[in-house]
């Protein structure tokens, strides 16, 4: 319903339909190829000649779709709008009027450019076909999707990082107590006879942990992407989540498995050294399993260092 002279450029990434996630209809194509064909189908249903190009960008999803011209004259705007409305209603599961299946053929691939590009990608024929201007009047009160809510310009971060600190600490403590009160794991190498008896707790599945949390806590976590698992993995100083099971992290194992890092990794580790309090020193009944000089976290306020601001590289003139 934009101007007849409207053009579009789409770089498909996330697989979404008009009202939710895109549901696959066939398995012979890759999910990406099928979704590209779906977006092409939408463009055709809206009356555009849709062409495909492959961008030179460092991304696995670099195929773009361009609509530069219409498939109908300006005088056909009213009838085309009825076809658009019918197609959109059919995609959201509403009955169409008259009841008929909207079938939109896929366009032939562009013939100019990289004909042998993987996944059938070809470059766009850059010849400008031009388009007539003007459009017919469309009734403004005839909305397409009455319940449609576009995404906000600034998308809210939903990786549990913006949750209140006291809420995160409460969940971490509760899960840690559940694990510490369970049957202790025996890994052999980490708990040798020469090392002190340190309670590393048991192992629980994510479902078992969720069962012990309050309903209000779970509802709050469900509003975040990944929920409980994301929160536990964010607190990797305390927990390890492997194959859907949670257990207390034993830093002795990490020390035994340590491999030589690159210079950038070593510099990053040295900058973060002792800039955060050690959770085990403050909360574990046996304290931290590592001595103070080996633990990357501060054992008490006296060891705590202020975080260092990373230096920005000077631009090369």
UniProtKB/TrEMBL annotation:
<dbReference type="InterPro" id="IPR000571">
    <property type="entry name" value="Znf_CCCH"/>
</dbReference>
<keyword id="KW-0963">Cytoplasm</keyword>
<keyword id="KW-0863">Zinc-finger</keyword>
<keyword id="KW-0808">Transferase</keyword>
<dbReference type="InterPro" id="IPR011671">
    <property type="entry name" value="tRNA_uracil_MeTrfase"/>
</dbReference>
<keyword id="KW-0862">Zinc</keyword>
<keyword id="KW-0819">tRNA processing</keyword>
<dbReference type="GO" id="GO:0141101">
    <property type="term" value="F:tRNA(Ser) (uridine(44)-2'-O-)-methyltransferase activity"/>
</dbReference>
<protein>
    <recommendedName>
        <fullName>tRNA (uracil-O(2)-)-methyltransferase</fullName>
        <ecNumber>2.1.1.211</ecNumber>
    </recommendedName>
</protein>
<comment type="function">
    <text>Adenosyl-L-methionine (AdoMet)-dependent tRNA (uracil-O(2)-)-methyltransferase.</text>
</comment>
<feature type="domain" description="C3H1-type">
    <location>
        <begin position="272"/>
        <end position="302"/>
    </location>
</feature>
<dbReference type="GO" id="GO:0008270">
    <property type="term" value="F:zinc ion binding"/>
</dbReference>
<comment type="similarity">
    <text>Belongs to the TRM44 family.</text>
</comment>
<keyword id="KW-0479">Metal-binding</keyword>
<dbReference type="GO" id="GO:0030488">
    <property type="term" value="P:tRNA methylation"/>
</dbReference>
<keyword id="KW-0489">Methyltransferase</keyword>
<feature type="zinc finger region" description="C3H1-type">
    <location>
        <begin position="272"/>
        <end position="302"/>
    </location>
</feature>
<dbReference type="GO" id="GO:0005737">
    <property type="term" value="C:cytoplasm"/>
</dbReference>
<keyword id="KW-0949">S-adenosyl-L-methionine</keyword>
């Amino acid at each position: 319903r934009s101007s007849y002279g409207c053009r579009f450029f789409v770089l498909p990434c996330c697989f979404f339909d008009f009202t939710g996630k895109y549901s696959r209809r066939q398995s012979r194509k890759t999910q990406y190829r099928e979704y590209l064909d779906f977006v092409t189908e939408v463009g055709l249903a809206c009356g555009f000649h849709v062409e495909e190009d492959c961008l030179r960008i460092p991304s696995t999803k670099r195929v773009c779709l361009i609509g530069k011209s219409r498939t109908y004259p300006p005088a056909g705007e009213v009838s085309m709008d009825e076809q658009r409305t019918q197609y959109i209603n059919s995609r959201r599961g509403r009955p169409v009027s008259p009841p008929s299946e909207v079938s939109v053929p896929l366009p032939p691939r562009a013939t100019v450019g990289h004909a042998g590009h993987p996944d059938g990608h070809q470059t766009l024929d850059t010849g400008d076909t031009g388009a007539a201007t003007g459009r017919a009047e469309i009734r403004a009160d005839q909305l397409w999707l009455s319940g449609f809510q576009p995404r906000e310009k600034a998308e809210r971060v939903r990786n549990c990082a913006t949750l209140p600190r006291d809420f995160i600490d409460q969940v971490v403590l509760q899960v840690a107590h559940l694990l510490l009160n369970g049957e202790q794991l025996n890994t052999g190498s980490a708990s040798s006879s020469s090392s002190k008896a340190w309670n590393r707790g048991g192992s629980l599945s994510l479902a078992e942990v969720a069962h012990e949390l309050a309903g209000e806590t779970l509802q709050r976590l469900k509003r975040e992407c990944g929920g409980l698992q994301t929160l536990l993995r964010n607190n990797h100083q305390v927990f390890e989540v492997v194959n859907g099971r949670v257990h207390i992290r034993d830093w002795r194992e990490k020390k035994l498995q340590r491999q030589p890092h690159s210079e950038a990794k070593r510099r990053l580790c040295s900058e973060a050294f002792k800039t955060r309090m050690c959770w085990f020193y403050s909360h574990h009944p046996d304290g931290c399993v590592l001595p103070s000089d080996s633990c990357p976290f501060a054992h008490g306020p006296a060891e705590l260092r202020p975080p260092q601001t990373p230096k920005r590289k000077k631009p090369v003139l």
